[in-house]
Structure formats: structure tokens, C-alpha cells
Amino acid sequence: MLHQRTLFTVSALLLLCLALPLRAQTYDYDPANGQEINELCSGCHGEFGQGGKDGEYPRVASQPLEFIANQLRLFRDRKRKNFAMVEYIDDRQLPESDIYDISRYLSEITLKTQLAPVDENAPDFDAYARLLESKMIMQIPRAEGDIERGERIYNKECDSCHGKGGWGNHRNAGPMLAGQYTNYLWRQVEQLRTKQRIHDEESPEEELLNEFSDQDLTDIFAYLSVMDD
Ligand code: HEC
Ligand code: HEC
Asked: What are the structural domains, with CATH classification, of the chain?
């Protein structure tokens, strides 16, 4: 009897270990691996994760690490649709330790919003360095809408999860919305409203954006689009 109970306890413990979510594991960060994986991603998302084709490919640089990792798992598990990316994030190609490395690599890239003025005629002017620097500039064009009204709604309804000024929230893996292409945000609104994407894991049934009109969102996005000015 006793023996059987011990066995039961041991196997229950074993099961518990297996069931522990992988994300609770920590990995030694390998930046070289992150950089190498980024060569795959950069074909669409750009060398510095700045995105491309006017928002067909979203900006991924400086997003919260956990947000990036969550999206990669959702794509991998086919819970978020993305035909373009699927083959790059298959289990075999991107195990959890790789997901950690690439997510951290991208989250640590900072993109400037403006080029600092320099004297191009100065003797130490380095044209190549300047070119590289200019590639890491990202400016979202100003979107139409009532910026002040957008700011009021944003601060009341979105700020707690998306961070001050829309720059992301690392605590709850809330993505940055400022510094992201406006048309990309609209595409996600569509996916969230139709529940192809789950906005808030804690209440998956209620889509919070359905409480806001297109005008509300237009104004919010107008506000977000000037955050990098
Ligand atoms: C073939 C093109 C392509 C490649 C390669 C690619 N992606 Fe993507 N990725 C996309 C597209 C398209 C979307 C947007 C899907 C949508 O509109 O919902 C996306 C979305 C994302 C998102 C979600 C961003 C957000 O704010 O919602 C993340 C994170 C991401 N990709 C990371 C990566 C990483 C990391 C790699 C490399 C391992 C990678 N992608 C490789 C095309 C690509
Ligand atoms: C309860 C927290 C919470 C609130 C409040 C909230 N969001 Fe979100 N939002 C999130 C999270 C978390 C995600 C990422 C979901 C995922 O992992 O797929 C997200 C994703 C988004 C996205 C997709 C971004 C991307 O890059 O994929 C948009 C757009 C968005 N939210 C807009 C808004 C707006 C506008 C408001 C205010 C009206 C708002 N959200 C309020 C938590 C929240």
C-alpha cells in the first residue's frame, strides 16, 4: 500500500514538472544567436526590426520581450494567423531557447525618431556611419484625427496596458502602439474585433475594442502617431 502511494506521489510530481510552463524557464541569453536568427526575420521586418512596406510588416524592434515571445508562440501554435511567417517559427526551427534569444535581441533594439543634425562638411564626417544611423530612424507619419480627444481616451482606456504615451508595458506584455505603423494597427483592430486575435487573455469573450467607435480609434491613433514627433 505504502509503496503504491509513494509511486503515486513520485509520478504526480513528475507530471507536475512536465506540465510546468516552458516560459517559466530561464535561458542564458545568447546575443550572437539572436542576431543570427534575425537574419531570417530581417527579410520582412528589416535589419533593425523597423518593419517594412508601410506596415505590411510591423515594427518589432523595442517591443516588450514577452510580447514578442508570446506572438511567436501564437504563430507557431496556429492561434494567430500568419502564413508568411509560419515556416520560420516551426517548432523544429525555433525552439524555446531561440524564441528567448530573438525576442530579447529585438526588444533591445532602440530606434531613434530623428537624426541629430551634423555638419556634412566637417573633416571627421563619416558618411557611412551616417547612412547606418539614418536606417535606424523611424518616424510614423501623422495620422488624421483629433489628437487631444485621442489622448484623453487613450489615457483613460488604453494607458494601463499599453504604457505611458503608447510606448509599451513590459509588466503585462502590452505592445507599444506608438512608433507602430497606423495601417498595421488598423489591421489588428479588425482581427481583434472579429476575435481572430484575443486582446485580453483574462477576458477572452469580451473584445474591449468593440466598445469604441471608428472615430474614437481614429483619434487615438492620431494621438499615437505624434508621440514620436
Ligand atoms: C516572410 C515574411 C516574414 C518573416 C520572414 C518574418 N515575419 Fe514576422 N510577421 C510577418 C507579417 C506579415 C506579420 C503581420 C501579420 C499580421 O498582419 O497579422 C508579422 C508579425 C510579426 C510579429 C507580431 C508583431 C505585432 O506587433 O503584432 C512578430 C513579433 C514577428 N512577426 C516576429 C518575427 C520574427 C522574430 C521573425 C524571425 C524569426 C519573423 N517575424 C519573420 C512577416 C514575416
Ligand atoms: C487589459 C489590458 C489592455 C487594455 C485596457 C488595452 N489593451 Fe490593447 N492589447 C493588450 C495586449 C496584452 C495586447 C497583445 C495581445 C496579444 O498578445 O496578442 C494588445 C494588443 C493591441 C493591439 C495590437 C497591437 C500589435 O502590435 O499587435 C492594438 C491595436 C491594441 N491593443 C489597441 C488598444 C487600444 C486602442 C486600447 C484602448 C482603447 C487598448 N488596446 C486597451 C492589452 C490591452
From this structure: 31-107 (1.10.760.10), 140-225 (1.10.760.10)
